[in-house]
Design goal:
With about 325 residues, the chain is α/β, with parallel strands linked by helices. Helices cover about 20% and strands about 25% of the residues. The chain has 2 domains: about 240 residues, 3-Layer(aba) Sandwich (Aminopeptidase); about 70 residues, OB fold (Dihydrolipoamide Acetyltransferase, E2P) (Beta Barrel), CATH 2.40.50. A hairpin with a 2-residue loop joins strand 1 and strand 2. The protein is globular and about 60 Å long. The structure holds zinc ion.
């Protein structure tokens, strides 16, 4: 079965639709409730305002194959996470520069780099702080959450798990790269690490579907959502049923680099998964050079050679790649 792929105009129209929905007074949320007992699955999108692929499953389940008649149990909660940043992204003129586009990733904070104590901050009016505090009670209810992202460069799609990737959840995902351990070593926390706190054993997924406005990214987002809902027993098995055990490429993230001061830059713009060797100088500046603690691969290096803030990792290092059969 070939899935239809939304055009960008469809994605934009879906943004307008969900931005105007609300649930329990929270804007940008739409819940599909089967009315039968079962899991609560959160499908979260636009955690970064310039990453529209998460709207594709919402388009699919509202415009192509209405979800509710097919939903066998539980409920599916679609959440437009960084609604203010996404509004800026969709308001960009056609000739917006790359920098203008990157600036719509977040307003005051990167929603994937949140301080631990964000839920206890008081009187903090920063856009993302207010939004996270508003969404947290809903996030807490997720048995499983799928946070859908995309990348500025055309990088291989990948799956990130928190606290780990559960094999039974990702059967049928059209992605074979898994990143593990990254949320554990992060200083500031990705939004999806706040999901499911009412459920001690819950696990959550983040997917990077490909580059931002690529139709393939839209298609992957739909396929992953469909497979996850089937894997959760909420939809008839469409893709997951015929999924054979698959070989995955696993990068276990075990260290990261922080810059000691603003003068530092990475010694090159490392492409994702670039091999590095123990002792290799990865960054230099006014002070000691920063070297790789172990052999492995560089991940999430910034195109500018430095993170937007010294509180953010300049890059992550994984162990040498392994294969994993699930
Ligand atoms: Zn993202």
């Amino acid at each position: 079965m070939t899935l239809p792929i939304p055009a960008f105009a469809d994605i934009r129209a879906c943004f307008d639709t969900i931005a105007n929905r609300s649930h329990q007074g929270i804007a940008g949320v739409e819940v599909f409730d089967s009315g039968k007992p079962g899991p609560t699955v959160g499908i979260t999108m636009l955690t970064h305002g310039n990453e529209p692929s998460g709207l594709a499953p919402y388009w699919y389940y509202t415009q192509v194959e209405p979800l509710l008649p097919k939903l066998q149990n539980g409920k599916v909660v679609f959440v437009l996470s960084n609604i203010d940043a996404a509004r800026r992204y969709f308001a960009l003129p056609a000739d917006a520069t790359l920098e203008d586009r990157i600036n719509t990733r977040g307003i005051a904070l990167n929603m994937n780099r949140l301080p631990h104590n964000i839920l206890s901050l008081t009187g903090d009016t920063r856009s993302e702080v207010a939004r996270v505090q508003e969404l947290a009670p809903l996030w807490e209810t997720f048995d499983v959450g799928l946070d859908i992202h995309s990348t500025s460069l055309d990088s291989a799609p990948m799956i990130v798990g928190h606290p780990a990737v559960k094999a039974e959840l990702i059967k049928g995902f059209p992605i074979d790269v898994i990143l593990s351990g990254i949320s554990d070593i992060m200083n500031l926390k990705p939004a999806f690490t706040f999901y499911g706190s009412q459920h001690a054993a819950s696990t959550h997924l983040l997917i990077e579907t490909g580059s931002h406005e690529n139709p393939l990214s839209f298609q992957r987002a739909i396929e992953c959502t469909q497979a996850l809902l089937a894997n959760m027993g909420m939809l008839e098995q469409v893709f997951a049923d015929k999924a054979e055990p698959m070989e995955y490429i696993l990068y276990e993230v075990t260290s990261s680099l922080f810059f000691p001061n603003e003068s530092y830059r990475t010694t090159e713009i490392f492409p994702n998964f670039a091999p590095v060797t123990k002792g290799q100088i990865l960054a230099a500046g006014d002070g000691e050079p920063l070297v790789a603690e172990h052999d492995g691969h560089a991940l999430m290096c910034f195109a500018t050679g430095k993170p937007p803030s010294l509180t953010e990792e300049a890059l992550f290092l994984s162990q040498p790649v392994q294969t994993l059969r699930l």
